[in-house]
Write a structure and sequence with these properties.
Elements (H helix, E strand, L loop, with lengths): L3 H52 L17 E4 L5 E4 L3 E5 L22 H7 L10 E2 L5 E9 L2 E13 L5 E9 L1 H53 L14 H50 L6 H25 L7 E4 H10 L8 E5 L6 E4 L1 H18 L4 E8 L2 E8 L20 H6 L7 H11 L3 E6 L5 E8 L3
Parallel strand pairs: 9-11
Antiparallel strand pairs: 1-2, 1-7, 3-5, 4-6, 5-6, 6-7, 8-10, 11-12, 12-14, 13-14
């Protein structure tokens, strides 16, 4: 099942089905309990009504049982013998006794003769109560069945005790039919079973349509991305819906990714073109000199050939380092003492046009974590840049700066115009003044320096030096 719409529709339908089934069962249980409670109440009322008549010494044949068909009655004595059943009761279960044939009992006070009233008038009651009573305790409730006039049905029985004036305790079992409860439950169950499939079909259809409408922008994004892939035109963008939901965010993120990808590809193309141009010059010069030397050995410009070879080697090294940085190469985790590294780098530059002044505290430790070779390369590139532009001063200082270490390289040259201070860190960018002074530089030194600084978690910026020239500030976080 690969369709999101199908999965959403089926998932929503299943969730609704489970919820409806659970709710339906709960409704049926509550309805059944309420209806059984009503049946219990009816059975109790009928039983207490009969018990009240027995407590008043009403004879069995005189009991008022107008609704005996709906409320069958069975009366038992203290020994569990059946002494009375309502008219038409042919069978019963769920009461104290399953019998439906009354057994004569000489001790039943309800059958006492009217002469007993005379005894009461004489005041000699022989220890019997003046009148009977009905138990006020909650009745015993039970499920059972009864056959009345040939009709068999389920009943809910209530048992209530009554004591006659003769002291005889009788138990009245009166039933209330459960047929109305069963019919109501069956009706509700049938309605649920009939309506549930219809409702689930509606839920599935609505979910399908809503999901289809919601995913329509996604299909537009997919088609546009497929077209971009086929045409390789990274300038195209996917349509952005006007909503503020996740799909609109997806479209915006996709366009932002395409923008970054387009810029990256364009930068890569420009890099390849610039690298090809920079490589072409020393290679062409070197080839020309070798061809001339082959034809006229006496005209060989050996120093020029060596210079072109050195320039070609340096350019190849710069390009290789940039390729590694672009590939995401992580710097090493060695601990470096920046002050010692700067002093060592300056000591190896004996042939510089202008001596370099070093400002590093002797007793301070400025440790960072990273690649020693790459950090040294940054310092060397900054010193090379300062040497090309300085009039008579090149200075490098190392100092603590917040949670990091700051290396600053200053010169007293013309400086960098403010609007060019970011552009000079782009690859193969050389200002016009730099071109006149550049001795074979390809415009990669500052770009490499900033990339290395960023890979080490630091920054590289340019400012105006107090001496009037440029001040390049390299900041690296301290080693933990």
């Amino acid at each position: 099942m690969r369709s999101v719409r199908a999965r959403a529709a089926i998932g929503a339908t299943l969730v609704v089905a489970v919820a409806l089934v659970a709710a339906g069962l709960a409704v049926l249980l509550v309805l059944r309990d309420n209806l059984i409670g009503q049946a219990d109440l009816q059975a109790e009322v009928a039983a207490r009504e009969v018990a009240g008549q027995l407590a008043l010494d009403t004879r069995y044949e005189d009991l008022d049982l107008d609704d005996a068909e709906d409320h069958p009655v069975q009366v038992t004595d203290e020994e569990g013998r059946v002494v009375f059943v309502s008219k038409g009761l042919q069978a019963v279960s769920g009461t104290r006794s399953p019998g439906v044939s009354p057994v004569p009992s000489a001790s039943v006070g309800a059958t006492a003769s009217p002469d007993d009233d005379d005894d009461d008038d004489d005041g000699d009651d022989g220890g019997r109560p003046a009148r009977g009573e009905v138990s006020s305790d909650d009745p015993d409730l039970s499920d059972g069945t009864a056959t009345v006039d040939g009709k068999h049905a389920d009943y809910r029985f209530a048992a209530v005790e009554a004591t006659t004036s003769a002291g005889i305790t009788l138990t009245v079992h009166a039933g209330a039919p459960l047929a109305p409860e069963q019919e109501a439950v069956d009706t509700v169950r049938g309605a649920m079973l009939t309506g549930l499939p219809v409702l689930l079909a509606v839920v599935a259809g609505v979910t399908w349509l809503v999901t289809r409408r919601a995913l329509r922008p996604v299909e537009g994004i997919r088609r546009e991305m497929a077209a971009i892939t086929a045409s390789e035109d990274l300038a195209r963008r996917v349509p952005e819906p006007g909503s503020r939901d996740e799909i609109a965010a997806l479209a915006r993120t996709t366009n932002e990714t395409l923008t970054v990808l387009e810029a990256s590809v364009e930068r890569q193309r420009r890099f390849v073109a610039d690298a090809s141009h920079e490589l072409r010059s020393p290679i062409a010069s070197l080839r020309t000199q070798l061809e001339v030397a082959e034809a006229h050995p006496e005209l060989l410009d050996l120093p020029g050939a060596v210079a072109d070879t050195v320039r070609l080697q340096a350019l190849a090294a710069d390009l290789l380092l940039l390729a590694r940085l672009d590939a995401g190469e992580k710097p090493g985790a060695a601990r470096l003492e920046v002050g010692a590294l700067v002093r060592e780098e300056v000591s190896q530059r004996a042939g510089d046009r202008i001596p370099v002044t070093v400002e590093v505290a002797e007793d301070a430790a400025y440790e960072v974590s990273g690649s020693r070779g790459q950090v040294a390369r940054v310092v060397g590139n900054l010193l090379d840049n300062a040497q090309r532009h300085a009039e008579g001063l090149v200075a490098v200082s190392v100092a603590a700066d917040g949670r990091g270490v700051r290396v600053e390289v200053r010169d007293d040259g013309a400086g960098v115009p403010e609007d060019e201070r970011e552009r000079i860190f782009e690859r193969f960018v050389r200002l016009d003044d730099a071109r006149s002074r550049d001795d074979g530089g390809a415009g990669l030194g500052l770009a490499i320096a900033r990339d290395v600084a960023a890979r080490h978690g630091g920054t590289l910026t340019v400012h105006r030096a107090p001496e009037g020239g440029a001040a390049f500030r390299l900041w690296l976080p301290r080693a933990e």
